[in-house]
Amino acid sequence: MVFAATLSTVHELGYARATVERIAAAAGIAKTTIYRRWPTKGALIVDCLLDAFGPVPMEGGSRAEIMSSAVRWAAGKIAEPGVGDAFAGVFSDGVSDPELREILSSRLQDPYRLALQDALGEPEHRVLFFIDVVVGTLLHRMGMTGEPMVDDDVDALVELVLPFFR
Amino acid sequence: MVFAATLSTVHELGYARATVERIAAAAGIAKTTIYRRWPTKGALIVDCLLDAFGPVPMEGGSRAEIMSSAVRWAAGKIAEPGVGDAFAGVFSDGVSDPELREILSSRLQDPYRLALQDALGEPEHRVLFFIDVVVGTLLHRMGMTGEPMVDDDVDALVELVLPFFR
DNA sequence: AAGTTTCGCTACCTCAGGTTTCGAAACCTA
DNA sequence: TAGGTTTCGAAACCTGAGGTAGCGAAACTT
Lengths: 166, 166
Hints:
2 copies of one chain form a homodimer. By secondary structure, the first copy, chain A, is mostly helical. Chain A has helices at 2-13, 20-27, 31-37, 41-53, 63-79, 83-95, 98-120, 124-145, 151-161.
């Protein structure tokens, strides 16, 4: 599977060194085959992340339970091998690539944003702020240290965010 | 000045399109001159950011005043033309470049971290978490939308962070 | 079995980061 | 003011990565 090859290549080589050619080699296919299915490297990574994240688990009845489970779910996914690197990598590329930013926003962020709006009954801008805080914090830690956030700090993030969105 | 040329080039072209050659042209010097002074593009950007940020203004006597002024100061700087793009850009590059990450962490983050530890009397890991939340949130907004965070959301960020670090 | 689609391979283009070389200008130092 | 040293600019070049084109060989369809 291409997605598995992508994540494992990103995991061992980092985002920039995980070239499309290497990913293709790891998947046992040709580079051109990848470009036949995805227009750019960024689009490949986004689809790969969509596959890795899957749907948000909206567990728990109370708002507090929903939010804390969402935070822990995001932290857990980002901590999986390759996922955090890939996420931070595309995110970075998107900074200077408006088209990729659009893909990121519409295909990756929007579904989760809508699901959270629905589950929490909060307006769009509040949920966007929530996502900025949670994902931004997790990615900043990943980007600065190269390691995902440890459990104690994920706990702190949950406690930081809970009283604010009450 | 090279720094001014760097920021204005990044501002109009974005991080990736702001090549060293273009920055040099904007500064009226040759590309080789830049590489004589800075080993890599990342190092140039970091020095540029250090120049743009300057020292943290540790205003206010109470912890709450110190923290809220620090958050607003960071948000204001990141909102300056070119600064946010440059910051998000190097940050992204650092994801897959351990050497650049080391430069970012030691030259850019550490001074502010130490100043905050000193001013707030908090242990290192708490201040690091504080920086993750504040800078991560600001950069995530910048990266997702291409625009700096509006004042209302900066206010929200201050209110989110204040009760937690009490 | 013939036609159509898909895939792999090779070669190629573009562009950005970074290096090398060399000549000219500026800057001491006397 | 003359000679030597350092600094800078210009141009050419190298490497590596994203992305494309063309062709032959499979595989799938009818």
